[in-house]
Write a structure and sequence with these properties.
The protein is an alpha/beta fold and 564 residues long. The protein folds into three domains: 10-66 and 439-562, Alpha-Beta Complex (Aspartate Aminotransferase, domain 1); 74-156, Histone, subunit A (Orthogonal Bundle); 171-178 and 188-408, Aspartate Aminotransferase, domain 2 (3-Layer(aba) Sandwich), CATH 3.40.640.10. The chain is 48% helix and 11% strand. A seven-stranded mixed beta sheet has the order 4-10-9-8-7-5-6, sandwiched between helices. A three-stranded antiparallel beta sheet has the order 11-14-13.
Length: 564
């Protein structure tokens, strides 16, 4: 890091003082925003940024949302080609073109017809990948008639999902992808039941709702959040639906240079030894620091849970795991305790597809064990709740209760993620499974690392190498940076006179740049989050320059006010 920090001219001092001066109304406005989710604040900032861009030569740079600006093409090309096969199969059983009518795909012999279809489509976009998928599936014991029928019927969307939780072959394919991407192939994917959901957003909603419905969490219960963390995990426990007591496990560890390591010291992990802590929520790699938990910390966490708190339930949000080489989910160390949530949205550039899964170990898991241990009066309540499903409620696994709860139980028969979405999910998973040399993964990592590197270079600060860094977001602690550039007195002045929201508001109003305030993720005060996924390298250079210049204006005003 280097900054010569030259003496400001009188004109620069005047401009800086004018820029950073706040009216009482502005202070009150910023104070009111502090109660809002940073995602809602971001929408407000986006409006400010658009107004600035209309009135200036600035370009709108929205680094506030984690929507990637790439898509994975091959599995999409395969999906579109597969649609043609689905239509062909539908026309075999009934074809009335004058009325735009066709029938339903038929299973008998469909596997050979699929091979014939691929032979006719040789060289077309998506054909080679589908042919590779066939080889992979046959090598791994899949019945081609079963897969081809599931795909033809599924892509046509002509039947309700059955089973409701996830289609049979889709589950097997995704089990293998979860095993590879979350555990490096060290687990038997078939040991885990999957629930296909409308993105991890739905996974979170369904998990919390079913935990409450099944008396696994109740108002006043204590839960732990590993912070900083994706804001909804901070907000959901406080809703009157749940009213939970939150304990934070803070990633407060610093390295030898005093910089954030975004890891969890022993004294923080020890909070999980308290058996009154019933649920742990962890986003790993973290959001917004975007750093995976160190292996020694993860193993220490597992040791504490197994020895001191074996009934701890864990929601592990592993959405960004595929951006870290040889990623290891907490599912590996605590398979019986963990509900693993994985989304295809970020890695495959598919946020609009709404594709995710929840994985829970089959048969032996803490969720089912705690349900079986409920007192008789609560079991009676649950028997009444799920009575329309079966006359043996005690045999319904927690993950299947989630499926029913997702449709208020009564509509369980029409539950489940749409079948065209599940077909696309299976093709994304196969794309990952067939990427044996990790060509796609390494390119994703390279793109994000370049963007992060240029952002910090333009800030004047070189980040040390860290193999645990996913680089999907960057959390910039401006308080720490202020102290390093100008000293502790400046940092104290900044925090005493300004809200942590002040700089993100000014960036939007004055430069057209949208960032999110890190404090809204329970990150350091005066930190900002930049999404590295949805802008190009040159954009991050501009963001870094503007952030650095704006902090410099605060410093100039501080020097003029204090004479330092």
């Amino acid at each position: 890091m280097s900054d010569k920090n030259p003496q400001a001219t009188p004109a620069q001092v005047q401009k800086a003082e004018k820029t950073v001066r706040l009216t009482s109304e502005e202070k009150a406005f910023e104070s009111s925003l502090a109660q809002m989710s940073p995602f809602e604040v971001k929408n407000l900032l986006l409006g400010y940024a658009r107004e600035d861009c209309k009135a200036s030569a600035h370009t709108l740079l929205n680094a506030g949302r984690g929507n990637p600006n790439w898509i994975s093409t091959t599995p999409r090309e395969a999906y579109y080609l597969l649609g043609s096969f689905g239509i062909e199969e539908a026309k075999r059983s009934m074809n009335e073109p004058d009325f735009d009518l066709a029938g339903m795909p038929q299973k008998q012999g469909i596997g050979q017809r699929f091979l014939d279809f691929l032979d006719r489509k040789k060289g077309e976009a998506g054909e080679e990948f589908l042919s590779d998928c066939v080889v992979y599936l046959q090598q791994h014991g899949y019945n081609l008639d079963s897969v081809a029928f599931e795909w033809a019927q599924g892509i046509n969307g002509c039947e309700y999902p059955m089973p409701e939780r996830i289609l049979d072959n889709t589950q097997r394919i995704c089990q293998s992808w979860v095993d590879l991407s979350m555990a490096g192939g060290t687990l038997d994917g078939s040991d885990f039941d999957l629930f296909a959901t409308e993105g991890t957003t739905a996974s979170m909603c369904y998990l919390f709702y079913s935990l409450k419905c099944n008396f696994l969490i109740q108002p006043g219960d204590k839960i732990a959040l590993m912070t900083p963390i994706f804001t909804p995990y901070l907000n959901i426990p406080l809703l009157n639906d749940y009213d939970l007591d939150v304990v934070t496990i803070q990633a407060s560890q610093v390295d030898a240079d005093g910089l954030h390591a975004w890891q969890y010291p022993e004294e923080e992990l020890q909070k999980l030894a308290d058996p009154s802590v019933k649920l742990l929520c962890v986003v790993n790699p973290s959001n917004p620091p975007s750093v995976a938990m160190a292996e020694d910390s993860q193993k220490r966490l597992a040791q504490i849970v197994l020895e001191k708190n074996p009934n701890l339930m864990i929601i592990a949000d592993d959405v960004y795991g595929t951006f870290v080489e040889d990623y290891r989910s907490i599912l590996v160390d605590l398979p019986e305790n963990t509900a693993c949530c994985y989304s295809f949205s970020k890695y495959f550039g598919a946020t609009g597809c709404r594709l995710a899964i929840v994985a829970i170990q089959h048969g032996t898991n803490v969720f089912d064990r705690l349900i079986k241990a409920l007192p008789d009066d609560r079991k009676a309540v649950l028997e009444k709740r799920y009575a329309c499903l079966t006359d043996h409620i005690e045999d319904v696994a927690f993950i299947d209760r989630m499926v029913a709860d997702s449709r208020l139980v009564a509509l369980n028969g029409t539950a489940g993620l749409s079948t065209p979405q599940q077909v696309q999910m299976s093709l994304f998973a196969l794309h990952g499974l067939l990427d044996a040399d990790k060509v796609y993964q390494h390119r994703m990592q390279e793109i994000l690392a370049d963007r992060n590197g240029y952002l910090w270079k333009s800030l004047g600060w070189k980040l040390p190498e860290n193999p645990l860094r996913a680089n999907y977001y960057s959390l910039i602690d401006l308080g720490l940076w202020a102290r390093r550039l100008y000293g502790a007195d400046f940092e104290a002045w900044l925090k005493e006179n300004y809200s942590s929201l002040d700089i993100v508001i000014r960036l939007a109003r004055d430069t057209g740049i949208v960032l999110m305030n890190g404090a809204g993720f329970d990150g350091p005060d005066w930190s900002v989050r930049a999404s590295l996924a949805n802008l190009d390298v040159t954009d991050f250079i501009q963001i870094g320059v503007h952030v650095k210049d704006m902090l410099g204006e605060y410093a100039t005003a501080w020097k003029a006010e204090t004479g330092q």
